[in-house]
Amino acid sequence: MKSEMDPLTVQILPEIHPSPPFSPMYTFTKPKPKPTISIIMLIVTSLVSVAITLGLLYVFCSLLLPGSSDFRYSVVIDAGSSGSRAHVFRYWIESKKPVFDFGEENYASLKLNPGLSSFADNPEGVSVSITQLVEFAKGRVPEGMLKNGEIRLMATAGMRLLNVTVQEQILEVARRVLRSSGFQFRDEWASVISGSDEGIYGWITANYALGSLGSDPLETTGIVELGGASAQVTFVSSEVVPPEFLRTISYGNVSYKIYTHSFLHLGQNEAHKRLWKSLRNTAANSTKDGIVTDPCTPKGYNLYENSQKDSSGLLAEESTLTASLQAAGNFTECRSATYAMLQKGNEKCPYKHCSIGSTFTPDLQGHFLATSNFYYTAEFFELSERDWLAEMIPAGKRYCKEEWSKLKMKYPEEKEEYLLGFCFSSAYIISMLHDSLGFALNDGRIEFANTAGEKDIPLDWALGAFILNTDAAYNGVSRKMFGFSLQ
């Protein structure tokens, strides 16, 4: 290392010759050079000090931060209804416990459309997207670490809608790709998880992000998620909960008794399809030329014409009904229609209380985060975090009554299939959260969110699956837990 001291310079004096009136008898002696040993010792001492400091710093950093060989890797593929997303996690072990960090250096994800369920008629088509997701994951993991990294595929509501035979055909194609990925993989690690598993995983993600996982159960935060094919409600309840809705998990030294339920077919896209089917049945029984108004679609949108070129599948499979529907764009009527759909079967509720259909729901307790399509709709309308439910009504009313042509001009960057859904989703959100579940419009206990905590951790249930599985593995758990088989 270069010393910060000035370099040692030696000055050589020139020879001096006597001038002529002086006698050559005079002699001149060269001055003795100054001693340099002390300077050299100072340099050596400085270099040694710097070396010792750097050594100590290296040791300190080695203890504080893991080296590249100390990292572990795990991949979870979330096979959702609208697409599949690969989540790649990097973590390390301290004091025999896993340490998680979901910053950019230790976490990455990639989503590809469409979802696996769209390959029901062509299971082999699944291999293309799964292969792409695997290649993305491999790009985030050092080659020498692949064989120690685990990869899992967990399919949700879109796949749950298919019959078991088709599910297994699709999963087998995915397994074939995962077996040859280079990662650790077992066939049982590719599966269709239950809706309650999905709800629990989302709850774990939120409470880990907020720092409440491992603390007082009554201080935890509940989750209300609106996906494409299903909706989940999950929170700690002090009520007596029927066993079919109760899940008990442990984290650290704390046990949590959690109410969770997944409302299949009541995700945003599936509910919209269900409404169109209901309108079609009404039109089929109508005596007025079979024309029925659709209050959840902005005026001017040609349902029949657009069903012929729809690529999302939202309208295509209902092309027979769209010929008899006329877009009306009325938020209030859309709210009534969606509420009626959510309350179907409520009169047969076998429990003390049912908020949606005939499904038991305890009284709401604590703070809640509304995620997925709740968040996307609130963001689209630019609602405030504090009064977003109250603001959703006037925002939905303005949007629903607007002409379709004007909406396209106002939002030129937005995909048409999304623009089509915002009238429905604004009314559906109010019907579900306020009219059915009972959140007050000014209820400060519920906020929409896509990330949580000081580190803005994504509120994706796959993170919760990774956290719970990894923590259980390093705590010696040997049992099936929420879709994972731990050996």
A few lines on this structure:
The chain is α/β, with parallel strands linked by helices and 487 residues long.
Structural description of this entry:
This protein has 487 residues and is an alpha/beta fold. Among the domains are: 71-195, 2-Layer Sandwich (Nucleotidyltransferase, domain 5); 216-267 and 338-453, 2-Layer Sandwich (Nucleotidyltransferase, domain 5). The protein has helices at 37-64, 126-138, 157-160, 164-179, 195-210, 268-284, 303-307, 319-322, 331-342, 373-380, 388-400, 404-410, 416-436, 461-473, and strands at residues 72-79, 84-94, 97-99, 107-112, 150-155, 190-192, 221-226, 230-236, 246-251, 254-264, 292-294, 325-327, 354-356, 359-360, 367-372, 446-448, 451-452, 457-458, 480-481, 484-485. Strands 1, 2, 3, 4, 5 and 6 form a six-stranded mixed sheet that branches. α5 (195-210) crosses α14 (461-473), α9 (331-342) packs across α13 and α11 crosses α13. The radius of gyration is 33 Å and the shape is globular. Residues 1-32, 58-63 and 477-487 have low confidence and may be disordered.
Radius of gyration, in Å, reads: 33 Å
Oligomeric status: single chain
Global shape:
globular
Q: Find the count of extended strands (DSSP E, 2+ residues).
A: 20
Family: Belongs to the GDA1/CD39 NTPase family.
Binding site for ATP: 228-232
Catalytic activity: a ribonucleoside 5'-triphosphate + 2 H2O = a ribonucleoside 5'-phosphate + 2 phosphate + 2 H(+)
GO molecular function: apyrase activity; ATP binding; nucleoside diphosphate phosphatase activity
